[in-house]
Amino acid sequence: MKKQWWKEKVVYQIYPKSFKDSNGDGIGDLKGILEKLPYLKNLGIDMVWLSPVYQSPFIDQGYDISDYYKISEVFGTMEDFDTLLAEAKKLGIGIVMDLVINHCSSEHEWFQKALKDPYGEYAGYFYFEKGKDGNPPSNYRSYFGGSAWEKVPGTDLYYLHMFAKEQPDLNWENPKVKKELFDMINWWLDKGIAGFRIDAIINIKKDVNFPSYEPDGPDGMCACTAMVERVDGIGELLGELKRETFAKRDTFTVGEVFNLKEGALEEFVGENGYFSSMFDFAPHMLTEGQNGWYDTREVTFLEWKKTIIQSQMECQGKAFLSNIIENHDEPRGASRYLPEYAQNPDGIKMLGCVSVLLRGIPFIYQGQEIGMTNCQMDSIEDYDDIDTYHQYREAREAGLSDKEALEACYRFSRDNARTPMQWDAGENAGFTKGTPWLRVNENYRMVNVADQEKDPGSVLHFYRKLIALRKSEEWKNVFVYGEFLPLFEEDESLFAYARTDGEKKAVILANFGKEEMTVKFSENLGKVLLANMYRPQQINAREVVLEPCEVLVCQVCE
Ligand code: GLC
Ligand code: CA
Asked: Given CB 3.0 to 4.6 Å as the disulfide criterion, which of 221, 249, 460, 535 pairs with 531?
């Protein structure tokens, strides 16, 4: 595949509210991020994706934007942003902004104008539709529960919101809306940002007849994804988006794409796709149940591993996916993908290693590099996430007790990954001098950056070596552009694969099992490139014994 600058990068996701507070108001901010740039540089990071920092009422933590051209005062000023961008650039770090263009905030000027004149120009920026027989236009359930339609006060109209009612969907059939959005995107690109992570993008194409579908739950509604999955024509919109904005320069884009139609991978992220890359959510989707978090599926190691392998094989030679263990919407990987006996620093290093050396772009979510874990809150009031409230309510309505509903939140709440970054063992984990907006995970005294800096055997040091290996002159071509070859696919505790560029070859071996195991090869295992347990520099054998939670990256020779 073509060599492109962004393929060689390692990206770090910052959730600004929880990264570092500089002024003691308990909320992370841009100056806090600025302060930590050297830390990111040291880790080997080339690009930082900032979850939204725009002006917002924070109904959905900034994914509800009320002014695309302003920085939220909670985070600082545009001047702070420009400083951050410039200082990051000096360190060779690009800034990737979050692009939320399926919807805006109900406090956005466009929506406010639409409400004032529900048959006027700005109503056409949204989907204002007549109800049917006293009911909403269709039976769609929003992602955060309840109808996806909300009454426009004083009229018989409803507006569409696939997420919260404070997040009205923008009308992508309206050329004026597209023009406004494209101008805004170009305005940000003019500033010199590296690119965009593109939020919920599959939802922008609507079937404007808004047909109702077979109900899929006791509420008589169907998930709004039923429409997304059936409607055609998103390609035209995405093609236009690319042509009018990203394609004019060498912008990096990564799509948050769920519900991709079969066979559409190359159209979306092939060499000439709409985006540079998109996240591989296949392993995260495995737990998905029919009715939300209280009703998830148990997933075996083998199933999880095979799903990752399948994604890798599907995009080989065709596309470059972005690989994650966790993000701001998903629970912590260390709590989710590791069996209990492996939930320790060795296990966490092993998980990081198998993920970062996959083919594709590694995204590391803040705190992952020190092994932050899920965080249990005492009661539903301690959470601060609209989706968690909705999932809790659903669980209670389905007859679960408070305790049972909370247990579902312990496992899947989006706040698991949103607790403040653990910088040191001091008060509030060094995140703030004030009161943190969301509780700090109690394990911060054991899991924090400062302690790990001092310990060469820590998860943090391991991540540094891991990233350095992936980017090293010697191995870059193998780990970035090389082929992915699955090994021992049916093994129920070994996660193993090889990477090769045709000249050099490395194997990654990880024992997720409880027992030690012997792995036999037809080739010779040579130089040890990375290990999380003691290993001499050379193996020089055709077999190797792996301890539980051991990961080994090793050169292989004929
Ligand atoms: C994406 C974001 C999520 C947000 C949603 C609506 O899925 O990652 O945090 O709630 O879009 O914007
Ligand atoms: Ca602050």
From this structure: 535
| Residue to mutate (ligand 1; options 162, 329, 413; most atoms within 8 A of CB) | 329
How far, in Å, from the CA of 481 to the mean position of ligand 2? 40
CATH number at residue 516: 2.60.40.1180
Mutate which of 13, 14, 49, 63 to test ligand 1's pocket (most atoms within 8 Å of Cβ)?
A: 63
Q: Which CATH number do you get for residue 441?
A: 3.20.20.80
Sign of CA dihedral 354, 505, 494, 446: negative
Last residue of a domain, one of 426, 460, 494: 460
Q: Hey, which residues are catalytic here?
A: 199, 256
Q: Distance, CA 528 to ligand 1 centroid (Å)?
A: 41
| Ligand 1, atom 6: closest residue by C-alpha | 63
Give the whole-angstrom CA distance, residue 265 versus residue 275. Answer: 11
Give the whole-angstrom CA distance, residue 401 versus residue 234.
Answer: 42
d(CA 551, CA 539): 14
How far is Cα 115 from Cα 5, in angstroms, rounded to an integer? 45
Q: Are residues 366 and 406 in the same domain?
A: yes
What phi-psi label fits residue 495: left (phi over 0), alpha (psi between -120 and 50 degrees) or beta?
Answer: beta
Residues flanking ligand 1, CB < 6 Å: 60, 63, 100, 163, 199-200, 256, 328-329
- Report the 10 Å Cβ neighbour count for 275: 26
Is 353 part of any domain? yes
Find the domain containing 543 and state its range: 483-557
Are residue 383 and residue 503 in the same domain, yes or no? no
Could you tell me if 505 and 426 lie in one domain?
A: no
Residue 126 Cα, ligand 2 centroid: separation in angstroms?
Answer: 33
Q: Which ligand places an atom closest to the C-alpha of 414?
A: 1
Are 386 and 312 found together in one domain?
yes
Separation of 14 CA from ligand 2 center, angstroms? Answer: 15
pTM of the shown model: 0.98
Residue 213 lies in a domain: no
Beta-carbon neighbours within 5 Å of ion ligand 2:
21, 23, 25, 27, 29
**pLDDT tens digits in sequence order for the chain, 558 residues long:** 789 999 999 999 999 999 999 999 999 999 999 999 999 999 999 999 999 999 999 999 999 999 999 999 999 999 999 999 999 999 999 999 999 999 999 999 999 999 999 999 999 999 999 999 889 999 999 999 999 999 999 999 999 999 999 999 999 999 999 999 999 999 999 999 999 999 999 999 999 999 999 999 888 999 999 999 999 999 999 999 999 999 999 999 999 999 999 999 999 999 999 999 999 999 999 999 888 999 999 999 999 999 999 999 999 999 999 999 999 999 999 999 999 999 999 999 999 999 999 999 999 999 999 999 999 999 999 999 999 999 999 999 999 999 999 999 999 999 999 999 999 999 999 999 999 999 999 999 999 999 999 999 999 999 999 999 999 999 999 999 999 999 999 999 999 999 999 999 999 999 999 999 999 999 999 999 999 999 999 999 999 999 999 999 999 997
Spell 346-364 as b/e; 16+ CB within 10 A means b: bbbbbbbbbbbbbbbbbbb
Most informative mutation of 163, 197, 387, 388 for ligand 1 (most atoms within 8 A of CB): 163
Structure tokens at 288: 């998905």
Q: Which ligand is nearest to the CA of 65?
A: 1
